[in-house]
Amino acid sequence: MTLNYLQGLEGARDYILQRLPKELSSPRVLIICGSGLGGIQKIIEKELSVVVSYSSIPGFKESTVSGHEGKLIFGYIGANKVSVMCMVGRLHFYEGYELSEATFPIRVASLLGVSVMIATNAAGGINPLYKPGDLMIISDHINFPGLSGSHPLRGPNVDEFGPRFLPLSNTYDLELRKLFFQSAQSRKITRRIAEGVYAFVSGPTYETRAEVRFLKTAGADAVGMSTVPEVIIAHHCGMRVFALSLITNTCVGDEPASIFDEAPVSLEQGKATHSEVLEYANKASLDVQSIIQATVNRL
After folding, report:
1. Where does a purine D-ribonucleoside bind (predicted)?
2. What value does the mean pLDDT take over residues 8-25?
3. Binding-site annotation, residues for phosphate
4. What is the pLDDT of residues 218-257, one digit of tens each?
5. What is the rounded distance in angstroms from the CA atom of residue 59 to the CA atom of residue 176?
6. What distance in Å separates the CA atoms of residue 138 and residue 36, rounded to the nearest whole number?
7. With the C-alpha atoms ordered 93, 95, 101, 102, is the resulting torsion angle positive or negative?
8. pLDDT grade, residue 275 (50/70/90)?
9. DSSP line for 132-166
10. Which of 245, 247, 243, 244 is closest to 276 using CA atoms?
């Protein structure tokens, strides 16, 4: 299994390299665009960029979710011309893919020479101080599927990338977190930026009220259906990792209406929708693009 997996990764890498000019063949930074944040691709210099669709790459699965285009863009960002590989759209566990399939592009990025990963996502705010439109720098995570057996490193270890027993206490690079915050200040971004714990759940359903209360008790500040598998694999590959959540909705953790309430609150109140997620992501996209551009330019 491991040999076939490695051969698949190398096949994908070689296919991509055949389509890249030499100057773009060793990207330094991998950027993953979350739901509604595909606009990050706009900060890549178009004149020298190369686009490769997921559907054409051996071993890559196709993104099936609205807001995820399913293509790689290789190019430069910033005045310092930092070479990047941008995933416009990600692959999710809830789409029916195995975690090894969903994280396949991260391994390929490692083979291409990527040393830094920047992952973005849209997330629900659990921390009562968070409001839609806020940004949360991820400082730690809770991997609920991983704790129950669905872990991206489950199975034979790929020793060529990293150790069998991987420590995760140092996953989210402190210097990258500082750099992002400093970049936001330099761009005079007024949008609230917090730092907190991201809870990964498998989805695709949004959380029940009881689940929101449970996640809050467990120490989560935000919750989403992505990012953590990619982060773990990137860390296993030795990449420096930065991850960002855009808070797109407030999770409802109040007790549900009861048959004994004289004037029950509608159960529709506060219900999350995917259109709401995309709406807030689109509104914040320009700020996110600006900060990431400044951040990458200083790497």
Report:
1. 207, 249
2. 96
3. 35, 68, 90-92, 122, 226
4. 999 999 999 999 999 999 999 999 999 999 999 988 887 7
5. 31
6. 18
7. negative
8. confident
9. TT-EEEEEEEEEHHHHTT--TT-SS--TTTS-SS-
10. 247
Whole-number Å distance between alpha carbons of 242 and 59: 26
Binding-site residue ranges for a purine D-ribonucleoside: 207, 249
Torsion of CA 241, 3, 23, 76, to 10 degrees: -30
Distance CA(270)–CA(89), nearest Å, equals: 27
Q: How far apart are CA 184 and CA 191, in angstroms?
A: 9
Per-domain boundaries in the chain: 2-297
Q: Which of 117, 122, 136, 284 is catalytic?
A: 122
Q: Is 239 a catalytic residue?
A: no
Confidence (pTM): 0.94
Lookup result for tokens 């034979």: 156
Class of domain 2-297: alpha beta
* 268: pLDDT strictly greater than 70: no
